Amino acid sequence: MAVTEGGRAATIGVKALPSGGDIVRRLIVTEFITLDGVVEAPGGEASHPHAGWTLMYGTPELYAFKLEETMEAESLLLGRKTFEQFEEAWPGRDGVFADKMNAMPKHVATKRTDELGWNATRIGDDVRAGVGELKAADGGPILVAGSATLAKSLLVWNLVDELRLLSYPVIVGGGLRMFPDDRGLATLELTRLDRFDSGAVLHVYSFRG
Questions:
Q1: Helix (H) or strand (E) holding 65
Q2: In angstroms, what CA-CA distances link 130 with 21, 67, 77, 79, 121?
Q3: Which residues sit opposite 33 in a β-bridge?
Q4: What are phi and psi of 78, to 5 degrees?
């Protein structure tokens, strides 16, 4: 387990985040999540009455992890709604994190047929096949941020290699969830556990074969 000591997040039994260049590209799903399993409106989106439930729990160590995670990724895979939210938020910002977000290639699961812009390309109508092709191509890790509907489909299709859940000590009484409700069984291995000063806890899981 991990404990917090001296104002720092201490980690026991941590595996370092792997570098890029895998033979088969790793697909990593990263989500903010409440104790009751909700992933909706973590940053203030208007769709939930308790929107912004992550905002009071930020710490320098937590931000450092999100920067580490983003710098590790070679490209983003996003659902339409998350892509449009990110596209609105990031191009006007600067700094290391924003520069990486703006520069990364984005692959978007969307039915939009117009030019997407922001270094983004549309995945074909067969999203499952399109993501499979992305994983089989040359390159480093593919990061799925938010995009709960897409993440749920990727879990059903067994395309996720690693699941990163940043859990917050809040209960919001319902909302959008990302896990399939199909009675399917998946077994995972906990490879990283961080507890931050604010009470947020990071769980990193890899999927067993």
A1: helix 60-72
A2: 20, 27, 11, 13, 11
A3: 167
A4: -135, 150
